[in-house]
Design a protein that fits this description.
Layout: E1 7-11, E2 13-17, E3 20-24, H1 27-36, E4 40-44, H2 53-59, E5 62-65, H3 90-105, E6 110-113, H4 115-123, E7 128-129, H5 149-152, E8 157-161, H6 166-170, E9 176-179, E10 186-187, E11 194-199, E12 205-210, E13 217-220, H7 232-252
Parallel strand pairs: 1-4, 1-5, 5-6, 6-13
Antiparallel strand pairs: 2-3, 7-10, 8-9, 8-11, 11-12, 12-13
Helix pairs in contact: 3-4
Length: 253
């Protein structure tokens, strides 16, 4: 590992591949951290309380919460029981949810996308819709899984960026941004202490920041990691995250 690059921890999904369980992180997330954030990605196993807070503080200069096909279990936010067949990852929930607020309070930079965005809202005391596409007046935010990946991850709707917000700065002052959309869950009740940074045309919260955070602490519902180096806004977002991690690394050293 380079002494000059910050280390960004990425909590893994726990998945059954064949007869064995694995701790996995998608390559697109690893590539975004290595290339667009200019950092060293380190995969963190989803082992719940056995992943000690002090160990994460010691090894990581930032935390990246990724997307995943799994949903946050609804008992964490007082929601109704999920429909049979819903994919959950209790090990990831048990790992990330206790860490998020503590690391943000500690001043560790944090970026969250899709499932990570939802985890962040739950960790701060918010709740989730489990199926946004079934809500009256809401868009269908799901992808068509039969489409090629480049179509699934192509921009599908615009979001309005909050005036004077951090994302507006990353967008060079633009107030509208075209984003991709590949999610069923979404914010129901926004957690106390989170400030809206972007909304979809149907009013769904698409991005937020932690009010008064000591460092970078942003969540987005879309997938900026997809070919991040080819998207001007995504490059700016990850570059700002990487810069915050470098500042923390410098202060710790």
């Amino acid at each position: 590992m380079s002494d000059r690059k910050p280390v960004i921890g990425i909590p893994a999904d726990r998945r059954l591949l064949g007869p064995h369980w694995f701790h996995c992180v998608g390559e697109k997330y690893v590539a975004a951290i290595a290339e667009a954030a200019g950092a060293v990605p380190v995969l963190l196993p989803s082992i719940g309380a056995d992943l000690a807070l002090d160990a994460v503080r010691a090894c990581c200069d930032g935390l990246f919460l990724t997307g995943s096909p799994s949903n946050v279990e609804p008992h964490h936010y007082g929601g109704p029981q999920s429909e049979p067949g819903t994919w959950h990852d209790a090990h990831r929930d048990a790992t990330t949810l206790p860490l998020i607020r503590q690391l943000v309070d500690d001043g560790m930079p944090l970026l969250a996308v899709c499932r990570g965005f939802q985890e962040m809202n739950v960790a701060f005391g918010g709740s989730l819709h489990q199926k946004v596409h079934e809500l009256p007046g809401h868009l269908n935010h799901l992808e068509n899984k039969d489409d090629p990946l480049d179509v699934q991850y192509a921009p599908s709707h615009e979001v309005t960026l909050a005036a004077g917000g951090q994302l507006e700065g990353f967008a060079g002052g633009k107030r509208e941004l075209a984003v991709n959309s590949l999610h069923a869950q979404g914010v129901d009740r926004l957690a106390p202490g989170l400030v809206v940074e972007a909304t979809a045309p149907d009013g769904l919260v698409e991005a937020f920041r932690v009010d008064g955070a000591r460092s970078f602490a942003i969540g987005v519902q879309w997938h900026p990691e997809w070919k991040a180096m080819e998207n001007e806004f995504s490059r700016a977002l990850f570059a700002a995250f990487g810069a915050a991690a470098r500042l923390r690394r410098g202060a710790r050293r």
